[in-house]
Amino acid sequence: MREIILGTAGHVDHGKTSLIRALTGIETDRLKEEKERGITIELGFAFLDLPCGHRLGIVDVPGHERFVKNMVAGAAGMDLVAFVVAADEGIMPQTMEHYEICRLLGLQRGLIIITKIDMVEPDWLELVKEEVAEYFAGTFLAEAPMVAVSATTGQGLDEVRTVLDQLVAASTFTEAHGPFRLPVDRIFTMKGFGAVITGTSISGRIRVGDDIMLYPQKFTGKIRGIQVHARAVEEVEAGHRTALNIQGIEKERLARGNVVATPDCLQPSYLLDADFLYIAANKKPLKNRSRVRFHLGTAEVPGRIVLLEDEELLPGAQAHVQLLLEEPVAVWPGDRYVARSYSPVTTIGGGGVLNNSPRKRRRFKAVNQEAFQIYQTGSPQELVMLHLRESGLSGLTFNKLAIKTGLFGNSLKKVLNTPLSARKILVIEADRQRLLEAGLYQQLADQAREVLGLYHQENPLRAGLVKEELRSRLSRHLDQRLFQFILNDLLKQGLLVQEEGLLRLATHQPALKADEKSLHRQMEDFYSQAGLAVPTVKELQAKFAALPQGMVREVLEVLVREKRLVRINVDLYVHAVALTELEKKVVEFIKKEGEIDAPRFKNLTGLTRKYSIPLLEYFDNIKVTIRVGDKRLLR
Known about the structure:
Distance between the termini: 77 Å
CATH class of the largest domain: Alpha Beta
Number of domains: 5
Low-confidence stretches: none
Number of helices: 19
Number of strands: 34
Strand content: 25-35%
CATH superfamily of the largest domain: P-loop containing nucleotide triphosphate hydrolases
CATH architecture of the largest domain: 3-Layer(aba) Sandwich
Helix content: 25-40%
Mean pLDDT: 89
Largest sheet: 6 strands, mixed
Structural class: alpha+beta
């Protein structure tokens, strides 16, 4: 059954750890330094079994300003927050910062707990309650239950348990589907077991023996064991505080901020599209490309905020941004983040990730606003089409599209059904399920026809363009499989014709002008009379020197296409009738003599070596003869 995670929040020394100890009997401060100093430094974990039958996982976070980054790491997996305010101090700086962090991370539910009530008079307690209610008015905690307690005397603890039971019982226990993900917040080793990581599983399920991948490094390993609250289990689902014994990845490679997940379900990236709220508590505008500390999941990564539509941002304003990171992170769209200033370190804002591997955007462009509008209000189909358009001619495989949308398996297939049926999306490679936006394909197909049309205009006598030359003229980034897909589709539609490795428009037929027709007749007569002792191309051009050399070459190719001439090699052409007669002579000779060689071929034809060797090689090439040593046999 899915577990609900309760996290604490509040100023240092306001009694968060003491409250958890009183509620659960579990000491969450486990470090020697924490016990000596009397403050929480690292995340602590406990659980509470509730009357409704659910077990509540609890994350205790540090309240000191020096350890806010640890607090953010713990808050990343919270479903509910217990906001703790000490009755003897009221609202304090970390109360405010922790509230902003919870808000930026998208928390929506929780309760407010006034602690240390045994240390104040009733009248003072009422003033503190009023102050707290006023501070949280208009926030997600405005209607939250408020309970006053003393961890020392036990007063109010039963009421806290009752309120927690009601909050959990009212929760919707929907499983977070998709691949398994767990942001790592703690790493240690156990003798005889090896590396162990802990965190809150935020999606999917995983079993003992399953393969996993550590992001962003993409190290691979296997789940050797799973524990939930010190109890071994075979399987864990989203929403549980989880310890995983990892096999195949050394402890030295593990760090807080890593994500343990199903293999190939995340794409590490240095660039994210996001929305950003610059909180009203900031004292000065935020400039474009300000260097900040980003907290994503349990990771802290330095980077810069690129304002796409502003030169600076005023406190309280929202913006479309790109997060330019100094280290890669592995997230899904919809994940939340917190931004803290680089120095001095304070929480300045945050928001949600909208695209986990976008292209780099140019600022002040209308297309950016269109993209962000689709991110935030578009349908899943519109989002899919946007990602495919922005991927360009590379397209996206089904798996990469899943990672970019956060939709997996049948959920994504359902979204794709309609645009695939309507041919708004094309499957370019069935084996990889590579998808291309139909508009991009149509532009490329139209461009192919335009290139061929222009080629026909410039070269009216030529039959067409070589395939590879057409591909290079379309785009240097056009891969072979997409190019072949376009050709197959255009050939199938009857728009293109392919003949002897050349491509032409179906409407194109080489047409001779008057002077070209005259040359055509003269050249055919010339070759017909020449028999086998034909001129070279250079000699032919010298004979017709008064005409452009290009015209002579093109008419020569027309005669070949019409099968009046046959190309022996690049320099020799023979009339088809003469060549047919020669072939008959050669075949009859070999049938009678069993073989032929160059001297006997010369005697048979009366030709010099200049012609006899190319002709013998031509008969080898067209598989009339086969060469064995210096002799030719019938094939």
